[in-house]
Amino acid sequence: MKYQRLFERGQIGCLETKNRIVMPAMGTNLPGCNGEVNEEIIRYYEERAEGGCGLIITEITRVDDETGIGTPCQLCANHIRYIPGLERLARRIHRYDTRIFLQLHHPGRENRSKFIDGRQIAGPSPIMSSAIGEMPREMTTEEVEGMVKKFIIGANIAKAAGMDGVEIHAAHGYLVGSFLSPQSNIRTDKYGGSFENRFRFLAEIVGGIKASCGKKFPVSVRIDGDEFVPGGFGLEDAVKTAAALEQLGVDVINVSAGTYETVNTIIEPTSYPQGWKKHLAAAVKKAVHIPVIACDVIRKPDFAEQLLEEGIQDFVALGRAQLADPQWGNKARAGKEEEIRPCISCLYCIEDVLNGKIIKCAVNARCGRETELTGLSKDGAGRRVVILGGGPAGMEAARVLAIRGFIPVLFEKQPVLGGSARLAAVPPLKEKITWYLEYLEHEIRTLGAEIHLEREPDLEEIKAMEPYAVFSAVGGTNIIPPLPGIQGENVCTVTDILRKRVTVKEKNVVMVGSGMTGLETAEFLAEQKNKVTVIEMLPNIGPGMYTPNLIDIVTRLKKYGVTLIPSCKLCEVTKAGVKAENMKDHTAVEIPADQIVLSLGVKNDPTFSRVLRENFERVCILGDASKVGRIAQAVQAGYEAASDLR
Ligand SMILES: Cc1cc2nc3c(=O)[nH]c(=O)nc-3n(C[C@H](O)[C@H](O)[C@H](O)COP(=O)(O)O)c2cc1C
Ligand code: SF4
Question: Where are the extended beta strands (E) located within 127-217?
Fold first, then answer.
């Protein structure tokens, strides 16, 4: 077998695992709103177990209803009424020889009063997280003692339900982690001050679980290797904490990083490479004899194998990789790496969960919908479906249609597949999008789709093919506002830049529009030694962008010296640059520039769609051609249209 280490059996205390692949905890909002285990959450986990995962750690599970509600719909372990549901979940996972731990959690100061009926959020000390903006009240000593008992009850419920172990969530700035951190814990009672006192809350939880569930009941503790917060819990604290936990009989340490204030180190945006934080797990592993689990932005099997080979960690935790492809383990085991649908680290999954919605994945339309989108009907019977446009929507549709037994005939006017996603992969640090496009292309070629590059068939040609259906996924065209000077030679679009039809080096550039594409293209231009100014008509840079993605790119743009000007509306382009209006005080602004680049979004042309509808019985308009959206919407539209074709 190619990945010997990855598929070696693992040992956590007395528990054996079939391999070294772990699915770390990920909130889903799939359980019932009263914490019930339902078929949705069971199928979601079951698909990952069936897909080859060795150990599943459930999402954050509530132990306290007063101040401890983490997400609107989450698993609960604070009452015996939850035992039967958790038992059903554990039983289904065990059918695949996969182990399951329940993650016990309290959000602490990283909660919002709206989640707890307006009550004030609670933490070790009245120190506000800037990411939350709500002042927590200091928990009383008795309250902390009571909370210890709630975690112990949670573990006992997990054990009674047949779970293989529990994980105490002591990372990410949540309640237990915030007691460990000198930045968020300035208490003067027995739970604050010295390392020993800050550690006491966690130590009492572990001690209580071991005493009541038995020494052999496996306990994992998830800690931060580094909070990356000034004055916070750092690597030295992590090493010391891990060693102390081993002394208490903890069976495995799960090393993560970050708090909500440094959220991009918990769930990394696309710019973070595989393994960037492996030094944290490596340092903890050196300090203990018990096994270490860690997430290290692991996407590819050879990288996972390398981490195990180098002794960085004993188990590889792949969160989003298994959202994107529940079959990650089986495909790696079979040596079919190119069939693994890669996570592109776009953060769409967590954005929706934090907005109180069900988990989703941009590249896997079935994620979170496992019970709804069951098997594809294989009734294509060799009928031809013409697909116009080879971006993610067109390719995903081709993939699903081919699985169903249709013959997809895909036309792409560019010399390569990928559409606008191919352009999105051009700016720096976007290689994961290329991985995804390579996966899609590999899949549709292997499944036998007919692919025609650099071809745009006209109506008569399409008719001549006598297609059963026509899917149009041709993408939109750039919006160019009718302003004076806009047709000048010094004006181009982001598409011109990313397709390299226009090359700009060591010039003054004004980027008009600060959406994701505008900012990423600004970075691309800044890398080419241009002096870039981004103007945005709206009051905030990056309208509609998910804040962690925005923080990530803006941090890099600042390093390049890119100037960002919100509330600045383009009025005219001149030979010398742009004339704009300050939207706050309506004064005129002039910005000198050699090149003006427009990033004002895309629009679709409904004419061609109308023509198709008039000429064919079954027409689906997908991706940007129907509604301008992101990869997630394109993939979802492609999947649904192809699976629903009757
Ligand atoms: C949608 C989502 C929900 C998450 N919820 C949790 C959680 O409930 N508990 C936890 O410890 N970490 C949670 N995390 C963090 C992951 O466990 C993991 O550390 C992170 O995604 C980085 O690893 P990855 O690149 O393999 O996904 C969540 C991550 C995502 C994407
Ligand atoms: S939504 Fe994006 S970040 Fe989340 S698992 Fe899917 S591809 Fe990865």
Answer: 137-138, 165-170
DSSP state of 643: H
Report the CATH fold assignment for 384-476+604-644. Rossmann fold (3.40.50)
For residue 308, what are the CA distances in angstroms to 8, 19, 254, 607?
Answer: 10, 12, 15, 55
pLDDT in the model for residue 240: 98
Residue 244 CB coordination number (10 Å): 18
Q: Determine the topology of domain 10-354 in CATH.
A: TIM Barrel (3.20.20)
Q: What are phi and psi of 589, to 5 degrees?
A: -130, 135
Average pLDDT, the chain: 97
The CATH number of 479-601 is which of 3.30.450.20, 3.50.50.60, 3.10.100.10, 3.40.630.30?
A: 3.50.50.60
Q: How many CB atoms lie within 10 A of CB 426?
A: 17
- Burial annotation 477-508 (CB, 10 A radius, 16+ → b, else e): ebeeeebebeeeebbbbbbbbbeeeeebeeeb
The total number of residues shown for the chain amounts to 646
Q: Residue 416 CB: number of other CB atoms within 10 A?
A: 12
The rounded Å distance from CA 523 to ligand 2 centre is: 23
Tell me how far apart the alpha carbons of residues 42 and 370 are, in angstroms, rounded to a whole number. 9
Quick one: tokens of 441?
Answer: 């292309």
Ligand 1: centre distance to CA 17 (Å) = 21
Atom of ligand 2 nearest to the CA of 267: 3
Cα–Cα distances (Å) from 340 to 53, 117, 209, in that order, read: 14, 43, 39
Cα-flanking dihedrals φ and ψ of residue 543, to 5°? -60, 135
Cα angle 313-323-164, degrees, rounded to a multiple of 5? 55
The pLDDT value recorded for residue 476 is: 87
Q: Can you say how many angstroms the Cα of residue 203 is from the centroid of all Cα atoms in its chain? A: 32
User: Which residue positions in the chain have pLDDT lower than 70?
Assistant: 624-629
Residue to probe by mutation, ligand 2, list 325, 357, 361, most atoms within 8 Å of CB: 361
Closest ligand 1 atom to residue 318 Cα is 26
The structure tokens 């958790």 sit at 86
pLDDT tens track for 127-155? 999 999 999 999 999 999 999 999 999 99
Give first-to-last CA distance, the chain, whole Å. Answer: 42
Domain boundaries, the chain: 10-354, 384-476+604-644, 479-601
Q: Is the CB of 350 under 6 A from ligand 1?
A: yes
> From CA 601, how far away is CA 513, in angstroms rounded?
8
* Cα 378 to averaged position of ligand 2 atoms, centre (Å): 28
- Selected catalytic residue, list 45, 174, 260, 272: 174
CA distance 199 to 190: 10
Atom 3, ligand 2: residue with shortest CA distance: 345
Query: Same topology for domains 10-354 and 384-476+604-644, yes or no?
Result: no
Q: Is the CB of 318 under 6 A from ligand 1?
A: yes
pLDDT at 520: 96
d(CA 121, CA 188): 20
Compute φ and ψ for 609, nearest 5 degrees: -60, -40
